[in-house]
Amino acid sequence: MSAEDKDLDLIDFEFKLQKIRTQITSKLENQKHLALILSAVEENISDQNSNGQKSPVAYFVSFLSLLEQSINVQTDEILDPALAASSAYFLDLTLPFIPKSLLKSKFPEILTKLAPAITNTEAEAPLIRSAIGALETLLIAQDLNSWNNSSLNINPKRGLGGLLEYSLDPRPKVRKRAQEAVHKILANPPPGPAREHVGSGLASDLSIKTIVELLSNKPNQKTNKEHSAKLIHTLQLISAITSANTWPASKIETLCDLLLEISKTNDQYLVSAAFGGFEGLFNSMTNEIDNDKFTKVLNIIFDLKPSVNDSHLAAAWIAVVAKGVTAYSKIEPLEAIKKIPNVLKILQPFFASEISDIYISASQCVISIITEGIPDKFLLLPTNDNGITGEIYEEVDEVITELSEIITDLLAVKYTNATKEILEVVVSIFAKLRSRSNPDFLKPLEIIGEWRTNEDFEFKNEAESVIGTAITELGPEVVLNVLPLNLLDANKSGRAWLLPLLRDNVRFARLGFFKQEFLPLIETFSSKIESLDKNSVHSKIFQTIIDQTWSLLPHFADLPNDLTKSFNDEFAQNLAQLLYTKVELRVNICHALRLLVESNVAFANGALVDDEFLSQQFSIKEAQSNVEYLSSKSSNLLAVLFNVFSQTAPESRNFVLETIDTYLSISTPEDLQNTFNKVSVLLKDALDNEAKEQANNNKQQQNQKGVSKLSATMMDLVVAMAKYVPESSYNALFTIFNQTVSSEDPLLQKRAYRIISKLIETPTGQNALVKFIESIEKVIIESTQSVHLSARASRLSAISTILTILPSNDLYFIPAILSEIILSTKDQNEKTRELSYNILIEMGKLMHKGGVVQNSKIPGFGDDVPDAEANLTEYFTMVSAGLAGSAAHMISATITAVSCLIFEFKDVVETELLVEISSTVELFLTSNNREIAKSTIGFVKVAAISLPEELVKPNLKNLLEHLLRWSHEHTGHFKSKVKHIVERLIRRFGFETIEENFPEEDKKLLTNIRKTKARAKRRAAEEGEEDDEEGTNNGKSKFSNAYDEVLYDSEDDSGDDEPTNNNNNNRKGKGNQYIMEANEEPLDLLDRQALSHISSSKPTKKGGRKINASEFEKDGRLHFSDKNSANDEDPLKSITSGINAYVEAVKSGPVKGQKNKFKFKRGAKANDDDGEDDGNDDELAKPKRQERSKIGGKGGRIGKPKQKLKARKKL
């Protein structure tokens, strides 16, 4: 174990002990007893060790000695049960931190002292559980020689034997703890040649022997329950052993025979436990087992198939089948694949079950077998490298054909209950088999597509998941051949709903298919729109189809497999023309152009290298050649994109800039240089023209809404190109920076600073910054006075970038700009404030690293000013200089900056400096300037919370005296802030300490705080008791009471016409099925479309009024009632709608009173109708008392909106 691991263990050990130490005042006797014993042991250890160190070994020796004192060694009698239980608990806690070498060498002595706690028949469960835990750690620490040493009377196998006996103990907690210990011991075998644990044979022998004895003893009626319990306990032990992956291979067949024997019993709980044993056994099986035996076990399990409607056994049996097949696939993958069709045929009847749990389990089983039982390797095309031969490929193909036939059978009316689950199975098959499912699964796809075409089909979402997965894996071309859109054929059902599915699922498709299939479709509908009125319904529908079709283009551009063939000059020119003429298509086209590059670059860089299936169809070399091909066209595309960028409104062109950035990233250095030179010339011309216009006072409306200055647009392009331009263009780039950084135009200034922030994003750009760092620093310092307010955030971002690469000999840059950064902490812009705080911290880190501050280089300092050593003390001196400023704003900003730095560097700053700064800043509490006082109160809060107690406590009296000066000031939340600080001080130092230092004239505030805390504590206690009373309801209702359930639970309105069925003998999960008939024609159950006309919810007829039987006369004629008489007889005539009925129910029902208890309205309140009088509409309603406005607070006043916390305001 490394030193670091030892330190972590000691920290963990100390943490656990500390948790027990805090329980010294616990109300629970057992917790308090543990804390007292620990305290006594620690006191004894401190007395024995002069150095005061307490190692885990020292604790271990003490606790072992206590355990020995509590037990009579000669008679094994437990003298002090409480002391024994506590000692064993601490041994269980301490042993994992004891060196294994000590546990091995002292094994006999430790086990001898620990054994009476386990073997004594009068030992209580807590003592036994703790002793089991200690024994577990002790046995795990033993090596192979100790386990094999049978000459000694006390050896590890005896200890394991004791644990195995307790694994069958009737006490649940003891049995569970022992089984967990057995599992952990067997799962951690000692280092040696054998994979299995030495004790696995002992554990398996005992388990088998126990089961054989139990099966041989036939129980009578009285002992049957006890007999079954023992069998279940033994099966649980077997699961613990098998899940540790150490069941001996030689005894697997014996175990299978026994489990199968138990599976034949009539006790469903025993059968379920036996299936659990099978599941654990399958999980532990490896390729060491004989293939024939595994096949035999599987066949026997298949023979145990329960009834399809056996709600107890079917689900457990299906889970065993899933585990068995998936485990077999890891041993013999090809053989397992061949078995899958037979397994599905066995599971097929369960999909016809009437119980939902059963067919859901069947579907999950099939999904598990498909996804885990078919290794991806066997779906690859045969090559010399992957080990897949032509024969294997054909065998897998035959299996896929059989699977498609079974799935097609499942799509019949017989399995209508499980339609949703079957569709989920089909989704998993398409996702797993991918293109190998073509052409075998096209038939099921066609059936499901026809179901989806029917608008009344109940499971549209699930059907769309199937079709969407097929689009992804088979490609849109294959799916549309099976399910054509039919948008231009009036004689066939149109499938416009496929367009959104295509948009969401197309990938790795053929770009040429979009050109062949969808571009003509767009042209056809566009020509139809031209002949229609733009506001007509048909025109809008056609336009929607066009928009949806264009939305497919980006997804066809996601790693297309025919890029070099389909993305030719003609297609690129068409897209460029559309970018110019069709503003609404710019987003989709730019997204497509960007995806062409990004998908190929990502694939070329190995983003999908783990997908072997895709790699066979599309290689990395092909992706690299695609990137080179796009690079050759980037110059022309960039020219188009630049023009489009300049023509697009500034607030709506970010997507164009992202596309430009993508193509700049793949352009050659020559193209980049030429492009940059052109943009630079355009920028210069734009600046010159704008300067002339300004000089001639000919200010045209260049800043019209949606139009940007050409110079700003060109600067945007320069910023985008900054990190990509070659080294030869750096001089021109920094010349542009120098000329625009002091521009009077804030738009240009803002973009100039962004050049610096962009350059840091690439290694070449970072090298350029390092090369020109001196001139950049000079420009930044000189431009301090010319910064526009809107450009300050960009400037601070640039300064933050410079600090990351600032050389140690250029630290003069920090004091040169420090005052600007400090003032920025008070800026109105949240981003600016956040950046200023980060820069202050970054400067502090640079100064802490050390170096020399050349004060002579700071503007305003003389050449004879001596240099200063860079450290935090010097840095705080620089910052604190602002406290001597004449402007209140500067003093306030300095205090805010000092607060931030104190909080950040409190652990590394010298104590004397902290005391000096704190005392200096606290003096400003006496200032009458509110701005200064507000910042100082913020500093006091930071100091009170974060500084060490030994620094704050001595100065408490002066601090409170100055602070409470502002406790009487109500404006600016001064009073609440002071009160909050006092509360934090009380929490930290205690009420007595604060009371001693509290000014006498302000004791009223302290009394108020104490009463408020007591009141809150008392209220919390009362609410806790009430919650306990209300929490005794163990009902499964999601509502607090029946009244809420009536009002708010969802209801099916269509169910009102059905009689209530109170029959409790319905089978679990069985639901009603309804046949939806159109035009009164009976449903043909032999039709393929039959399933799409069957629903689990009752269909309702659209439109028309329902005629009740009471409206017919005896002779069958329809009777029309007189309107007035009908109203007179209507008992609900006053209720005009369902909403009013709901309101009436609420009014007449109970209301919540104090403590959320319900009460019914009485007297006048019961007739109060929200201020409206039911009897006379002319009378004014009486206003409710204490009624609150929906938008205000108490008394109907408009409440003040919650204020946002300023950045770093509360540290």
Automatic annotation (TrEMBL):
It is found in: Nucleus. Residues 1046-1059, 1169-1178 have a biased composition (Acidic residues). Pfam families: HEAT_RRP12_N (PF25772), RRP12_HEAT (PF08161). Residues 1154-1164, 1197-1211 have a biased composition (Basic residues). Residues 26-241 form the RRP12 N-terminal HEAT domain. Keywords: Nucleus. Residues 1111-1132, 1179-1190 have a biased composition (Basic and acidic residues). The keyword Nucleus applies. This is Ribosomal RNA-processing protein. It comes from Wickerhamomyces ciferrii (strain ATCC 14091 / BCRC 22168 / CBS 111 / JCM 3599 / NBRC 0793 / NRRL Y-1031 F-60-10).
